[in-house]
Structures are given as structure tokens and as C-alpha cells.
Amino acid sequence: MASSVFPKVTLSNGLQIPILGLGTSHRGGYSHEAILHALKKCGVRHIDTAKRYGCEEQLGTAIRESGVPRSDLWLTNKLWHGDYGYKAAKQSCLDSCSRMGVDYFDLYLMHWPEGQQNGLSNREVRAETWSALQELYDQGVCRAIGVSNFLVPHLQQLKEDCSVLPHVNQVEYHVYQQPRQLVEYCREEGIVFQGYCPLAKGQALGDPTVLQMAEKYGRTPAQICIRWSIQNEVVTTPKSTKIERVRENCDVFGFQLEDADMEELTQLHDGRRVCWDPTNVE
To answer: Which of 13, 62, 132, 194 would be 170's cystine partner, CB 3.0–4.6 Å?
Structure first.
């Protein structure tokens, strides 16, 4: 599968992020073989990771072993909220670059809207941390900067406090969790919306509606869920440590869900989350 089959989404600064990538995670969410297969056999050029996941060094090794030029890759990394604050954020980014053996990240995200600093509000910590990311962006250490798990109030405050809007907001997104107001706000502000957990940690794979669609289109339930996300123009990063699953998750560009089926899947929204809930973070 050639990488040319992966469409791209244009950020507000003109950079283009592949609409489909491979995610990693902590607690066994990294597989050297799966990363190599994705890069060498599936045409994947978008890898999403985080300091929190503890696999930066291994991922850097896999990328070098793959032989794919750094300039052809889109690497996203995330700043853990224990490293928020101006000095800590800058140092953490540079340390992550060092661990991965790269000079820059294509996208660097604040991982969570809550800060962990005594005497400062979450809003103050976010603004101070974001100023560090803006400098890293100006210096070219990060080609784009963004946030993860931020809701509309968090984004509105950042807009008031800072001079550069996030290029991306990465949030839980699947058929059961469709934050429509947040998606709409991001698009109005020119912030690319990216979704993680497109399979709802496997919960969506046994859904009767999803299974019915899989049978209709001759595809797997996972492919139906990922295709639905992509057709909603959401940058999507499914995670898997199994080679056959990585291959399956990448093979979603050879078919199109009909409008009526897209709408039927959209109706599955019930608000459930399978990951962190940032709702109560001020």
C-alpha cells in the first residue's frame, strides 16, 4: 500500500497532516514489529506517541530501522502535565527529541488541560506552558503545536491568553462519543480536530449496527468505525500492536460509506467515554 493513498488535512499554518496514523499507548501499547510493518508495508507516515507512553526510545529505533526518511514522516508527541510550566515544558520537549533521536516534532501537544503546579490556576499553568510551546514553534523545534483533551472553555481561555491558536486538538472520538459542539468550535477557529480511540477500546466492534455495516460492505467492524471517522474529516489514529490489525486499520480507503449509513452510525452517540474525562477540569 503506497503512502499516497493516505489523504492529508491542511493545518492553519499550511502544513499537511496525514488523516490516518498509527497510535501508541502506555501499558503494552508499543510493538516494534507493528511499527516497522506499518512504516514499511502499509505506507503509514503518521505516528502518534507521548512521553507518558514510555516508548520514545524504542519508537526512534524503529523509525531508523524502517529506512523511511525523517522528512517523509509526521511525528506527533505530547507533553505530560507533570512537565507543565515554561522551563519544564521546553526542557521536556528537547528531552523527548533526544530520546527519539530527532531534531524536531511535526506536532507537539499539551496532553491534558489540568496543570499540576501549586499556587497557580489551571488557566495560568496552561497559558505559561503554551507560551513555551509557542517559542518551540518559533524556533522550529515543533513544526506545529496543539492540545489534547481540551474542551471549548479551555480553548476559549487559551485564545484570550495567548497569541497563537493550537493547530490541532486531539480528543476521544468514536461512534459513542461525538463532541459535536467541540468539533464545530475547532473548525470555526481553524483548529484541526483529531480523534483517538476510534474503536471505543473495542466496545464498538460488537455493536449490532456496526456489525450490520461490516456485513453490508464486506469489511471488518474496525474498518467501518475508522472509515466513519475519516469520512467525518477527523484525523484518526487507531492503536494496535498486532501486525494483522495494523494492516486492517490502514485498509480503509478503498470504499465509501453511504450517507444513510453514516447517519445511522452517527445516531449511536450516547456520550460514553472510554478514556479520561476532562469535563470537570476548570
So the answer is: 194
Query: In whole angstroms, what separates CA 64 from the centre of its chain?
Result: 22
pLDDT of residue 213: 98
Phi, psi of 272 (to 5 degrees): -70, 150
pLDDT one-digit tens code per residue, 95-129 = 999 999 999 999 999 999 998 787 899 999 999 99
Contact, 104 vs 140, CB < 8 A? yes
Q: Is 86 noted as a catalytic residue in this protein?
A: no
Q: Say how far apart CA 44 and CA 21 lie, in whole Å.
A: 6
Q: For 279, left (φ over 0), alpha (ψ -120 to 50), or beta?
A: alpha
Distance CA 236, CA 267 (A): 20
- DSSP class of residue 29 equals B
- Alpha carbon 61 to its chain's center: 21
Residue 23's contacts (CB-CB under 8 Å, 6 or more residues apart) are 29, 48, 49, 196, 237, 238, 239
Q: Which of 30, 53, 84, 196 is catalytic?
A: 53
Is residue 4 scored above 70 in pLDDT?
no
Alpha-carbon distance of 20 to 22, in angstroms, equals 7
Grid cell locating 19? 488523516
- The alpha-carbon radius of gyration of the chain (Å, integer) is 18
